[in-house]
Specification:
Layout (H helix, E strand, L loop, with lengths): L1 E2 L11 H11 L4 H9 L6 E5 L24 E3 L19 E3 L9 H5 L8 E3 L11 H8 L5 E2 L2 E2 L2 H10 L1 H33 L9 H8 L2 H6 L5 H72 L3 H86 L17 H76 L1
Length: 484
């Protein structure tokens, strides 16, 4: 966590300038050197001053480049050339904002600050805005949670007067804000729902999206839709197609719940096994350490060289025994987890395979519907061509349809092109679902195996470090006593 104070020379801030400012304001000792070597964590910055220092004050004209300072509480941009308050949206924890001696003249800048719910201290003195007769009243009315304005505490009487004076406009603003907030919440809920559907690989299958997409680029199919009798045929096709898509969607969500349950159960089993194993290890270490102090004291107190050497050997055997016990426990855990992981791998692969198999079966039904519709459309188109050739054609036939009805080849090509587009859309959606489901499964299983390997390596390293420490204690004791 850093509290930083400095400024920037250039007139518009960017990320490089921010790094420079934060770096200069950070700790000067060893901690500062480490921060510069390892990189500054902007999320840890709580306070930042971009005002007085050297020649850099009163040069910043625009607020930019602060998006990474998500935990910033105190920001000072005093004595610059800023004319507009903006680009601070990421600073949701902002409590203190100093913008004195700038060029802010529009009162609407105050309304922008309403989004900072934790803002309690604001300084705008020395700006054109502060010369307005209604300045204090306006600020107090539109920022009701503010405690200090221009280094003076806002009393309750001032807040009441301000609220009364601007009540009508404040009520209108609150109404607009509530509408915006409601819309944002709806959009967020929709996005969360979409992410849930994506996790099940069935996004946009809960309606007519796939069907509509088949006609988005289908120029010939959209023209042929105006043929007599096609409208009813197309609507029946769409209704049946959407029902199948909904079946895929609902099935996908149910299968996602099954996969989630399988994964949760697996994780619980793994954690239980690790915890039980750790408890056994802790118990054996506790017993060893209980004996450890007694053994060391006994060795130190031993005056006879022969007995001293015997106790050293005995204690060395205890350390070796502990090492063997801990490593045996770890090997047992590895075997147990390997069995659990392999079982989970088989189960999750089977679940994904079953899901894909059933989805492919449902997608095949979509293709059957398309094939059926294609046959009907071709039949109606050929009949229409025959009527045209006989001169028995409906005068209401759209003009852009007439060029298609020159001969059978033209009709076959138009209907065939439409059919190909539809099948390609269905195939692509199926391929996308299958690829993503398989990739998810492969990635999950690989990650679980890699995590187990890393866990095992960490545990073996812990055991070796602990045993090495015990052995070093014994070795140093032995050396010191021999020297004595």
């Amino acid at each position: 966590m850093h509290r930083l104070y400095n400024s920037l020379e250039p007139r518009v801030m960017d990320e490089d300038m921010l790094k420079l400012a934060v770096g200069e304001q950070g700790p000067r000792e060893e901690a500062g050197q480490l921060a510069r070597q390892e990189g500054i964590l902007f999320k840890d910055v709580l306070s930042l001053r971009l005002d007085f220092q050297n020649l850099s004050f009163n040069n910043i004209e625009a607020i930019e480049g602060l998006d990474t300072l998500v935990n910033l509480e105190d920001l000072s941009l005093f004595n610059n050339r800023i004319s507009k308050i903006d680009s601070l949206d990421a600073l949701v924890k902002l409590q203190v904002l100093s913008l004195g001696n700038n060029q802010i003249g529009n009162m609407m800048n105050i309304i922008y600050l309403r989004r900072f719910k934790d803002l309690r201290t604001l300084s705008l003195s020395g700006n054109p805005i502060a010369e307005s007769e209604d300045y204090k009243m306006f600020v107090c009315a539109y920022l009701p949670d503010l405690v200090y304005l221009d280094f003076h505490r806002i009393d309750d009487h001032m807040k009441e007067m301000a609220e009364s004076k601007h009540q009508y406009s404040i009520d209108e603003l609150k109404h607009r804000e509530n509408l915006i907030q409601s819309r944002l919440e709806d959009e967020q809920a929709q996005q969360e729902e979409l992410e849930k559907h994506k996790a099940a690989f069935v996004e946009h299958l809960n309606g007519s999206f796939l069907f509509d997409s088949m006609y988005t680029e289908d120029v010939e199919g959209n023209k042929l839709a105006y043929l007599p009798g096609i409208s009813e045929l197309l609507q029946a096709y769409k209704d049946k197609f959407v029902i199948i898509c909904l079946n895929i969607f609902e099935y996908g969500l149910k299968q996602q719940e099954k996969r989630k349950l399988e994964l949760d159960t697996f994780n619980e089993c793994v954690q239980e096994a690790i915890q039980e194993n750790q408890e056994q290890g802790k118990h054996r270490i506790a017993k060893f350490e209980e004996k450890h102090l007694l053994s060391l004291n006994a060795i130190r107190d031993e005056s006879e060289l022969t007995n001293f050497e015997m106790k050293i050997v005995e204690y060395g055997k205890d350390i070796t025994e502990l090492f063997n016990v801990l490593m045996t426990l770890e090997m047992q855990l590895v075997e147990q987890l390997e069995e659990t992981i392999n079982m989970f791998e088989r189960n999750i692969i089977d679940l994904v395979a079953l899901f894909i198999e059933n989805v492919q079966s449902l997608m095949a039904q979509c293709r059957d519907l398309e094939n059926h519709h294609h046959e009907k459309l071709l039949e109606i188109s050929i009949n229409t061509l025959e009527k045209i050739l006989k001169g028995d054609v409906d005068e209401d036939l759209p003009d852009d349809l007439r060029p298609l009805f020159v001969d059978k080849d033209t009709i076959f090509n138009a209907v065939g092109a439409s059919h190909d587009i539809h099948l390609l859309k269905i195939d692509n959606r199926e391929d996308e679902l299958v690829t993503r489901a398989n990739s998810w499964c492969t990635h999950l299983v690989d990650t679980i195996h890699k995590n187990e390997i890393m866990r095992n390596r960490r545990r073996v390293k812990e055991i070796n470090q602990y045993i090495d420490h015990m052995q070093n204690e014994l070795d140093s004791l032995e050396c010191s006593d021999v020297i004595d």
